[in-house]
Every structure is written in C-alpha cells, then in structure tokens.
Amino acid sequence: MNKKRYTSRLDIKNGTVDMTHGSGGRAMAQLIEELFISNLDNELLRQGNDQAAFDVEKGRMVMSVDGHVISPLFFPGGDIGSLSVHGTVNDVAMSGAKPLYLSAGFILEEGFPLADLKRIVESMAAAANLAGVPVVTGDTKVVEKGKGDGVFITTTGIGVVPEGVNISGDLARPGDKIIVSGSMGDHGVAIMSKRENLTFETTIESDSQALHDLIAEMVQAVPTIHCLRDPTRGGLASTLNEMAQQSNVGMKLREEDIPIKPEVHAACELLGLDPLYVANEGKLIAICSADDADKLLAVMRAHPKGEDASIIGDVIEDEHNFIQMETSFGGSRIVDWLAGEQLPRIC
Amino acid sequence: MNKKRYTSRLDIKNGTVDMTHGSGGRAMAQLIEELFISNLDNELLRQGNDQAAFDVEKGRMVMSVDGHVISPLFFPGGDIGSLSVHGTVNDVAMSGAKPLYLSAGFILEEGFPLADLKRIVESMAAAANLAGVPVVTGDTKVVEKGKGDGVFITTTGIGVVPEGVNISGDLARPGDKIIVSGSMGDHGVAIMSKRENLTFETTIESDSQALHDLIAEMVQAVPTIHCLRDPTRGGLASTLNEMAQQSNVGMKLREEDIPIKPEVHAACELLGLDPLYVANEGKLIAICSADDADKLLAVMRAHPKGEDASIIGDVIEDEHNFIQMETSFGGSRIVDWLAGEQLPRIC
C-alpha cells in the first residue's frame, strides 16, 4: 500500500488546513492517511473503501447522530474530539444498547492549524479506544476561511440492544422514581468559565465521558428500566420536560436531592445561570419503577461513573406534564423548558 | 403528544434560524417538530428518542458517512438536501449493499431563512422517499452568523450486503474491464456554471441521483463484480487512481470511450476544467472480470440510470499504479491524481 507517493510528509507542526485538503485529490488522501487513519487506526477503517463492512447478529439495533460545534474546541476535561465520541456513544447507549461503531464527518475551516487538528484526532482516538467503540468510516470537507469555525465533527453511532431490554422516553409511569447518575452542570460551567476567562480556586472540569459501561451494568441488574436519557443541551430541566411530555406524565423533584457541586453552584451564581438548565456530557437520568429504584441506585453507586447517583424525585400523574420542584427552602416551583438560549455552542 | 405547547407556530415564511434553535430548549423542539419531523416523517423518526431502534437480520452490514458543504445550496438538478441523501445512499450501495437507514446532522448558521431550510428538508424527504431509505434520526446545531455558511448536512447510512457479494477497491485484477455508468462531469459543471453565472443554450443539470436500484440489478446479474465506486470529488481520474493504488494495479483507458456530453465538454473548455477531474454525483465505476463485462454492461444499459454505460478501459499490471490513457488523437498520457484544488465545495 505505502507507495510513498507524496513528495514529502504533511507538515503537521507548522501547516494549516487548505482547500486542497477537501478536494478529493492527492492532498486529501495524504491528510486522511497521515493524520486520520494513522491515529484512529483500526481494521475496519483500513479497509480503505468509502464504507466500512462488518458482520452483525440478528437483533435490535439503534442508530444515533450528534453534531459537535463546541466553542472553545479545547476545554478543561476534554475537547471536541473526545466529546464527539462520548456524545454519540452515550446517545446510542441510552437505549440500553452496546455501542459498536462510529462514523465521523469533519468540516474543517481553511487555515486551521494541523497541529490542533492532530490533537483533536488523537483525543478522539483515545476516547474511542477507551470506550472500545472504533471510528470505522469518515469524511473530510473543507470550507473557506470565515465560512466555518475551526472544526465541526458530526458522529453517528450504531449499537445492539440486549434482548428483552426496551427503554424509551415514553415509558415513564406515575409512581416511577427519577434517578440522576451524578452532579449536574459541570460541563456547561466548565465551558462558560473558559469562555469568560473565569478562574476559581479549583478548575471546574467538564464531565465529558462515555457512560455505556455504567449503563451495561444498570441494564443487567434491572433490565426493566423504563427511560434513560442524558441531560445535555438544555440540562436536566429540558430533558425531564421532554420525557414528561413524551410519556404524558408530570414529575415532582426535590431540589435538595439534586447533586450539584458547590463550585458549580458558585460559578452559576456568578454567571447568572441556573444549574438545572446547564448541559452535562457524562451524566444520565434513569426512570424506573419504585420497586427497582433502590437496586438500581445501588448498582449505579457501585460504579465509578455513578458514585454520586441520587433519587431526585417521582413521576406523577399530570395532564399538563409539569415538572414541579420542592425547593430547598420548602417552597415549590415549576421547572419549565429552557425558553431562550442559555449557552450557545455548548456541545 | 400534541399539547400545543408553543404559543404560535414557527414563522417559516419570514423567520430565520436563531441561536435558540440550537439550545436544547423549547425553540429547538419546535423547529424539530414543525420543520424536520413533519417533513421527514417516518415511524422510526417518530419514536422521539435520541436514537432510532429497528430490527436487523444476521449478516454483513456497511456504514458510510458523507459531509455536505456544497455552495450554492440550490443548483440545477438538485440542492444540498437531495444531495445529502444521494451521496450517502450511493456510498453505502457501492459495497453492493441495500441501503436501509440514514442519520442526518444539520449545522445551521444563525440568520438562515427558515423558508430555505424548509425547501432543503422537503427535498431531502422527497429524495429519501424516492430511494426508500428514510432518515431515522437527526441532530440540529446552530452556529453564530459568520461561523458557518447557511447549512451543512452530514449524513450517515447503513445497509446490508447480500450474501456472497464481496466488492472492494482492492479487488481489481489485471485483465479486468473498467465500466462507467454514464456521462462524466455533469455535476461539477452544473455547480460551476451556476457559480460563474454562465448560461448555455441548454442548462447543464447535476446528475445527483441514488444508484442503489441500478446496483441491485448489477449485483444480481453479476454477483462477482470486483469493485464499485462513485467518482465524486476529484472525478473519474482521482477515483481510478485510488482504486489502482488500493489494488496495486495500473489501468489503461481509451479517451474516446469515456462518455462526456458535448455541452459539458464545451463548458469545461470555457471554465478551464478537465472533465476527468470533475465531480459526479449520480454515476459509478464498476470493475469486473473480462468474462463478465458484456453481461454487466447489458444489464446497466437496460436500466435508465445506466443507459449510457460504456467500457472505458482495462486493468493492467503496473507496479507504479499509473492510469494511462490513449487519447482521441492517438497519443497517450498519464492521468494523474488531482494535485491541487479544482472545484472547492462541490459536494
């Protein structure tokens, strides 16, 4: 294969993306070979066709897509490369599925430093390796300077659902318990702090991580989990509203049981944000019957990615699909959908 | 489901995309419901989860991704919506697979007219319906004005390969015949003419179309086809070079057998383009053994999408993997990779 058909190697240290890298010609082939394939390396990607081929068993499969336009590209706890793996692995896993493979479409802006692109692809490769979910097929496009913003990455994932598992946002029932896997708001606050150049005593890091290993244990222990969803854009509040509407139920939360780190609370006050609306990239919401809740909570807490899991409330009957919350001060409020725009380009 | 939770319907006629449409909140939910789901409507998309779930049979599956950043968004013979369906359906089908499902990730620029977005989504829906390959899961992100360019669409497709079919770019063998399904260069010339505001006596239209139905008949007639690939970016020349290198062979073409429309030829002369390097979006290259070539050609010509199919040359032994071409004037030249950038943002 390696014919040394390029006169010289890609200048990753000083080079930048130019329009020829999206042309379909020799420059694009070199970029793909020396930067993408060499880092994301796996057997399927190396097939070198416009598609990856693999064997599947008969069963239920899921497919999910997530575009990533986060700004800044690098942030405490991650970057757009690792995020684009975690985001889609999680969307696949929220069906209870074992994620199998990812595709990745890159849209690059002319002038973007190849060194930064390399960092991003390396981070993507590390995240994919750690998750055991390889990027098996990819595509690269280049747009003129001023027509993009560095790098956008759209990933699609597929996975297989274990037999007997049926998890969906429309399956919440009155009486069910609502559990979150850990503290809310870390990702969004990490991004906003970076954007606003805020420094705190301790750096707030994004919680960006793949949750499929946690989910696999949850599903094995309680195959009858009703709903799973990750509270990304719009945060816990918007995601619960989505599910309440989908299931045609209401919910009642207890504010004091919603885990939020003190430094995230403090940063939110400073930034004028409500942590319930702030994006997470490594947390999940589970809804299950009251009978299963303690068992599920125990399994989650026994896993490093769920050690701060908490039962935050109950599903109730409500034709208006309202999310109510008992506040820490003993009051009560409605937690509505995010109405405007709290955090642009948070993922 | 329909709770009329929006105070008013989306103003598609006069409205534009704003940052709230990517926020994860109510405005995004409304955009997705009233513009995306209502047009792309299908049972899987209506599951309303962050992933689509479906049953698959045991077998060989393929996955392929294609980002679309074409400019202009609307062009003679198509638009970015239909193109984003055709491009990925074709990439999946070039393995001999029957395409099953698509995912679509939209990256929208703030200020983009909703009326244009609606046209694009309608066109996407029409293309998906015609192809019988639904968009089953999607994602929408919004970037600030000046950080994108209207609309980018990244689609991923999956499909199943019929048993016994094994098509790959590394399977060309000396003695094989090279066939193209029709005229070369139509898509790229249609785009460039539009960009340059050129008018000809007849409008040159993009050949953008889904080829999986043609391929299904080809594979059924000749299950032993060695290679299939669509000559998109970089055109026929770059795609043949890719395959020659992958298979470690050379190729010998006859210029006079390569179908090119007279008006495409004329436009290329005017624009200073070489039609062999101009992108196609509805044509394929097939490579098969000499024994199968006449049968395959006949099947292709009997199909409306292959009626101008032509055997354009032979695979030969060549350790340098050169593509040689006998010119119409009896000379000979090397058809190299596209070296620079001929047509930016052609797909």
Structural notes for this entry:
Chains A, B: It comes from Sedimenticola selenatireducens. Chains A, B: Pfam families: AIRS (PF00586), AIRS_C (PF02769). Chains A, B: Residues 48-161 form the PurM-like N-terminal domain. Chains A, B: Residues 173-324 form the PurM-like C-terminal domain. The structure is a homodimer of 347-residue chains. Chain A has 347 residues and is of the alpha+beta class. The first copy, chain A, has two domains: 19-161, 60s Ribosomal Protein L30, Chain: A, CATH 3.30.1330.10; 177-334, Phosphoribosyl-aminoimidazole Synthetase, Chain A, domain 2 (Alpha-Beta Complex), CATH 3.90.650. The first copy, chain A, has eight helices and 14 strands. Chain A has helices at 26-40, 80-93, 114-131, 186-195, 212-221, 235-247, 262-271, 290-301; strands at 52-56, 59-68, 74-75, 78-79, 98-109, 135-143, 151-161, 177-180, 227-229, 250-254, 285-288, 310-316, 323-326, 332-334. In chain A, the strands form three sheets. Chain A has a seven-stranded mixed β-sheet with strand order 9-11-8-12-10-13-14. A four-stranded mixed β-sheet of chain A has the order 2-7-5-6. In chain A, helix 3 links the parallel strand 5 and strand 6. In chain A, helix 1 (26-40) packs parallel to helix 3, helix 2 (80-93) runs parallel beside helix 3 and helix 4 (186-195) packs across helix 7. Chain A is globular. In chain A, 58% of the residues are buried. The interface between A and B is large, with 93 and 93 residues. Strand 2 (59-68) of chain A pairs antiparallel with strand 1 (52-56) of chain B, so a sheet runs across the interface.
